[in-house]
Amino acid sequence: MWSRTLKILGFTLLLCPAAYAQDTGTFTLLPKGGIAPFEATCFDNVATAQLLTWKEFQEEEYQSRLGLRLGLQQEEFTLQYDTLRIHMEESTIRYEESLRLRDEELDSLRGIIKKDRKVNLPLIIAASAAAGIAVGVAGVFAISQAVD
What we know:
By secondary structure, the chain is mostly helical. The protein has a domain at 60-114. The chain has three helices and no strands.
């Protein structure tokens, strides 16, 4: 019985780190029905194991939650990045299409201007004057015929 108690006490002392505060608690294993030299709270083996592993449990839970939050945040940023990339690609396509249409329009306008430059301006003026004179002569002739 005492050897078992000594084994448990030795094992417990190995697990418990040294405390350097002035008001340190005392840990003692009591046999069933034993008397403690101080006011004490007793835990069974399961409760003691839970107390000893609580810090590790909290660390694991924190790491798990942190991983989940970071994963969610990464997915949100990936979605935002993909959305912006798609928007930029679509805007680039629209911009290139508008430049292509503008260039085509400029080329067609330049072609029209080139065609207009090929026309002989003095010939057009002479032909317009001759046509005006012919219309005038024909009008005078028609009026003189109508009056007679």
